[in-house]
Amino acid sequence: MPSRAIAALFAAILLSMPASRALAQERVTFDIENGAAVTGYNDVRIPGNTGTSFSLANDLKSSAAYYWRVRGEFRLAPKHVLAVLAAPLSIGASGTFDRPVTFMGATFAPGAPVNGQYVFNSYRVSYRYDFVQTDKWRVGIGVTGKIRDAATRLTSGGVTAEKTNVGFVPLVNFALERRLGRGVALQIAGDALAAPQGRAEDVFAGILVPLGRNVSIKAGYRLLEGGADNDEVYTFAAIHYVAVGAVVRF
């Protein structure tokens, strides 16, 4: 399972590090984030060439969902960073269709109550090179390998249809941090890539405020957006996050 692989990678990296506490404080960062996830749009047509187009945000109504994610960064050398991320997401929707909707070979009648579920779990490993490191700026760029564990599900009465997808996605990783003074920093960071097969963006913009030497609180906005358009699926979604959390350095 992806979650077991992420846990194993965390453990392997921690065990391989030197025992020196001073070195560990400079090299290990955990970013713990949670908050509310709100659907901006979520357009679906599956199969992509024969299904009915519908929206989990407009035809059905998606509710705000609680989310959490954990990211660990391990500084292998002054400018070289390895990171791992676990970011599960599940958002429910409900309502009725005003027309027959064909999804994954099943037909959902107009006027019948429908429950929907959008799942987009993401597990990532990233390498970043921080090519700018000054008293005020940190800028880095790298690569990310993402395992996408996604599902879209509709249920009405005794009818349930679901499309699942587990796949690997390469992304560009980036981070920009501007220190504002007294330990406060503005941060923009994420993963993104666009290609003819589709696109994906997961970007955070916010502020970090220190609570002590090793702990900062964070607050800001996150956007998760993207999708794919092919014969198998047409699915594009934008999720807006109200993000708060803590950054802990060891």
| Fraction of residues in helix | under 10%
- Please identify, by name, the CATH architecture: Beta Barrel
Total discrete domains:
1
Q: What is the percentage of strand-forming residues?
A: over 45%
Number of strands: 15
Determine the CATH topology.
Answer: Lipocalin
Q: Would you tell me the structural class of the helices and strands?
A: mainly beta
Overview of the molecule:
By secondary structure, the protein is mainly beta. The protein has one domain: Lipocalin, CATH 2.40.128.90. The protein contains 2 helices and 15 strands. Strands 1-4-5-9-10-11-12-13-14-15 form a 10-stranded antiparallel barrel. The longest helix has 15 residues. It is elongated. About 7% of the residues have low confidence.
